[in-house]
């Protein structure tokens, strides 16, 4: 399995994401085959090479029978010519001409009949039916459905309607169906199991669309970012850098928003944007594997978060309940330490150890379930010993034990312990005290080291 880092400092759209994935090595023939299998007329796809910011990039284009003006700068920004560098139009055309000797891989989907309308209004149920008729894998279908559902919820919220009552051409449009299904197929093709992502960059101004002139970021993007806690920063680029499809893809991948971790890079892919902004828009994607050179095969050196706060006005029942909630929500460890606070008040210091991506969710529980009005947190490193749990046949009967192995750098010793729940069950079954049972088992394990 591979890990993926998405560098979205220039924004993201569906076609940019797909192009970046194809540049990383996603199966292009599989993408074309799946898109062909949905049997919708009125579009074709083309994959080519273009140059942006003096870099060679992949371009994924959904060609429509009826133009949707998605990259028509005069249509999208009719009153903002002064903000746009139209030289990029000429630059892009020259690059495409320059690469004419390369093959532009195009796959047509049926005959383009005049009765096929690009702006057909479809609801979420219609789109999911189209996805399920395709030859995509089960995982790809699930991811595509998740992406569409995220967009549908955002549009429903923007229009004040129930999700099943929303008919909108953004999701129903052929290009959105092609982009999202292709994105899902690419992710599945690359065997990606972990995604990291930078904060998303957005532009400013207004954009002309089917709903009229809307402020940037548009309502659907705002809803997706808010609902999925996606960090965003606004740049000085005039124009829309984040499309609803792009935002929904990020949300569906549920990435960790953090810098690229220590790793071994496998490949970098660039997905070109179509719109001619002053600053070229593209997605940079990095395929990588975790770097284990500084980690012994016997232990893991990873990053965690320690959350702390002091509580001086809560009952034992509430503190116990809070600990249970935090453990259920994925905390690695929860503990209380007796402390004295100002005015010599006895209190408890709560300490929670968790993964970085659990910081916000666990902080929410602490601040809602306790009387604390603030907390502090700090990133930390930890060393985790290699551990194995196995069944051990003792003279008292079978019991589960844990074997922990230190790496050579830390001495190479091996320690074996009985697992508590298994030890307790064995003591009760043999009518012995827990202390007696523990001594017998540990004695046997020590003798067999």
From TrEMBL:
Residues 87-121 are annotated as: Disordered. The keyword Lyase applies. Gene3D superfamilies: Transcriptional regulatory protein pf0864 domain like. Residues 87-117 have a biased composition (Basic and acidic residues). GO terms for molecular function: lyase activity; nickel cation binding. Keywords: Lyase, Nickel. HAMAP family: LarC (MF_01074). PANTHER family: NICKEL INSERTION PROTEIN-RELATED, PYRIDINIUM-3,5-BISTHIOCARBOXYLIC ACID MONONUCLEOTIDE NICKEL INSERTION PROTEIN. Belongs to the LarC family. This is Putative nickel insertion protein. It comes from Succinatimonas hippei (strain DSM 22608 / JCM 16073 / KCTC 15190 / YIT 12066).
């Amino acid at each position: 399995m591979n890990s993926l880092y998405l560098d979205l400092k220039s924004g993201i759209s569906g076609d940019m994401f797909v192009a970046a994935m194809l540049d990383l090595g996603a199966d292009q023939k599989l993408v074309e085959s799946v898109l062909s299998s949905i049997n919708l007329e009125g579009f074709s796809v083309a994959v080519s090479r273009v140059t942006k910011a003096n870099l060679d990039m992949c371009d994924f284009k959904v060609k429509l029978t009826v133009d949707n003006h998605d990259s028509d700068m005069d249509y999208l920004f009719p009153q903002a010519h002064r903000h746009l560098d139209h030289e990029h139009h000429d630059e892009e055309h020259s690059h495409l001409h320059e690469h004419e000797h390369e093959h532009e891989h195009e796959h047509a989907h049926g005959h383009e009949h005049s009765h096929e309308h690009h702006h057909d209004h479809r609801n979420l149920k219609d789109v999911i039916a189209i996805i399920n008729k395709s030859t995509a894998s089960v995982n790809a279908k699930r991811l595509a459905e998740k992406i569409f559902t995220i967009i549908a919820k955002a549009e429903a919220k923007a229009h004040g309607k129930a999700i099943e009552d929303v008919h909108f051409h953004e999701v129903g449009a052929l290009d959105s169906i092609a982009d999202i299904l292709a994105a899902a197929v690419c992710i599945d093709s690359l065997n990606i199991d972990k995604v990291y992502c930078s904060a998303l960059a957005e532009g400013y101004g207004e954009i002309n669309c089917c709903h009229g002139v809307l402020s940037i970021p548009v309502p659907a993007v705002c809803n997706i970012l808010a609902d999925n806690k996606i960090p965003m920063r606004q740049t000085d680029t005039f124009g829309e850098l984040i499309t609803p499809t792009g935002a929904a893809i990020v949300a569906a991948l549920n990435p960790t928003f953090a810098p690229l971790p220590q790793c071994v890079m496998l490949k970098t892919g660039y997905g070109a944007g179509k719109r001619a902004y002053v600053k070229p828009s593209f997605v940079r994607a990095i395929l990588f594997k975790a770097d284990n050179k500084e980690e012994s095969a016997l232990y893991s050196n990873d990053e965690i978060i320690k959350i702390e706060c002091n509580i001086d006005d809560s009952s034992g029942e509430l503190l116990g309940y809070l600990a249970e909630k935090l453990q259920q929500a994925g905390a690695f460890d929860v503990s209380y330490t007796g402390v004295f606070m100002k005015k010599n008040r006895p209190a408890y210091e709560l300490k929670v150890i968790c993964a970085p991506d659990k910081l916000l969710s666990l902080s929410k529980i602490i601040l809602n379930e306790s009387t604390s009005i603030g907390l502090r947190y700090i990133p930390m490193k930890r060393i985790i010993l290699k551990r194995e749990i196995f069944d051990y046949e003792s003279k008292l009967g079978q019991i589960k034990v844990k074997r922990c192995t230190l790496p050579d750098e830390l001495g190479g010793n091996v320690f074996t312990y009985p697992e508590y729940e298994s030890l307790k069950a064995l003591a009760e079954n043999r009518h012995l005290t827990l202390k007696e049972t523990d001594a017998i088992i540990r004695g046997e394990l020590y003798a067999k080291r």
